[in-house]
Amino acid sequence: MNTADRSIALLDTALRRRFDFEEMMPKPEILNNKIVDGTNINLTQLLKQINCRILNKFDRDHQIGHSYFMNINNNTDLRRVFINKIYPLLNEYFYNETETIAEVLNCAKSDLNNIDENWLNILEKAQKNDEK
Predict the structure, then answer these.
(1) 3-46 per-position pLDDT tens digit
(2) Total number of domains in the chain
(3) Which of these, 13, 51, 55, 126, has the minimum number of CB atoms within 10 Å of its CB?
């Protein structure tokens, strides 16, 4: 544990002593099976499938919350959220292990090599029930 980790741990302990925290798990149903304009991405299905794979690979506390998807109205919004928020979060969770991230997104490892061009293809695979 480095110095930054220790200072965060102390802050975490101090906050937990002073405040109540209510667990709020992801609620994909809030997304109402919304299909993103310009795509065939169903946000509810996408969130459910990614979180199901995260549960299998990691734990329930690292699931992606529904709030990431709340204000997505078109493919530009979806691309921004995936590339700037979801993908970096998965990289953090899985320590940049491309193979594990590809499993969570139900895609080939090579799909992640050029995420700027392959993002829609990756998300189409990620929302599917079956593995690869």
Answers:
(1) 556 678 888 889 989 999 888 999 999 999 999 998 999 999 99
(2) 1
(3) 13
Give Cα separations from 71 to 13, 43, 60, 110 (angstroms). Answer: 33, 11, 24, 29
Q: Which amino acid is at 19?
A: F
In a domain, 17, yes or no: no
In a domain, 12, yes or no: no
For 27: left if phi > 0, alpha if psi spans -120 to 50, otherwise beta; the answer is: beta
Q: What is the DSSP letter of 84?
A: I
Domain ranges, residue 53: 26-126
Whether residue 19 is contained in a domain is answered as no
Phi-psi bin for 26: left (phi > 0), alpha (psi -120 to 50), beta?
A: beta
Q: Is-contact 28 49, C-beta < 8 A?
A: no
Higher-pLDDT residue of 13, 89? 89
